Amino acid sequence: MTDERIMVVEDEKIVALDIRDSLESFGYNVPCMASTGKDAVEMAKIHNPDLILMDIVLKGDMDGIEAAGIIHDDSDIPVIYLTAYSDEKTIARAKLTSPFGHILKPFETRELRTNIEIALYKRELEKEKVQDNQNWINSLMSNIGDAIISTDAQGRVEFVNPLAQALTGYKQEEALGKPIEEIFRVICEENGKKAPDPTRKVMNEGAFYGLQDKTVLVSRENIRTPIDVIGSPIRNSHNEITGTIIVFYDITDRKNVEKSFLNYSFNYNDNQAVNH
What we know:
Blueprint: E1 6-9, H1 13-26, E2 33-34, H2 37-47, E3 51-55, H3 64-75, E4 79-83, H4 88-95, E5 101-104, H5 109-143, E6 147-152, E7 157-160, H6 162-168, H7 172-175, H8 180-183, E8 185-188, H9 198-205, E9 209-218, E10 224-235, E11 241-250, H10 252-275
Domain PAS: 133-206
Domain Response regulatory: 5-120
Pfam families: PAS_9, Response_reg
């Protein structure tokens, strides 16, 4: 028995059972089967399989392509379509969900097994590539000279570099999974009111957004630090926004220089007025 878990989505019970028997004979585990698109979405959340065999035409309001699209957005579980339909419109819709394979019915068990093994292998390669990239990105962000916090699309913290940990007062293990507003608390310097959330602006507008000069970070210990902030979107290969990166830095020294300059100018002008 292998560790791979494959979910079958097929509304013809006899066909579904036949596919399940074939998968089990290959050594795969079949944790669940679904007969509608709605059930497929729910079961994918519960069982989180390694692969889904999805019939395109299903009974009910949601077909297999729509179900696969929702699953792809929620958890990115790879899908192989099983269908008797190969018209261009159906294929074009199916491609939008980034499937790992497309098998036309009727099919041989050997063809099914080959497609499954290729899909699972591709998935492992993608995981390794993503992990390598993530390790490189984390290393880069850990050593960069600015404070950095990254979030997912829901604004939950995914990464906090050492400088951001120092300024916010939260260690990474404490911050992970929390809404960013709990970690990154910013107020307006002039009135002390809560400053606009840069992550929301970035997610809503899909563009860079900055809070400069008049923003104060309030740390866990209630230490107040004047900062400049820049937020930018994180996009996937489909140009969809999957999160945000917030870069901020302490501008205390700059503020002190500005204050000293203003005091000097004020005193100089006063002296000039007295002398005249």
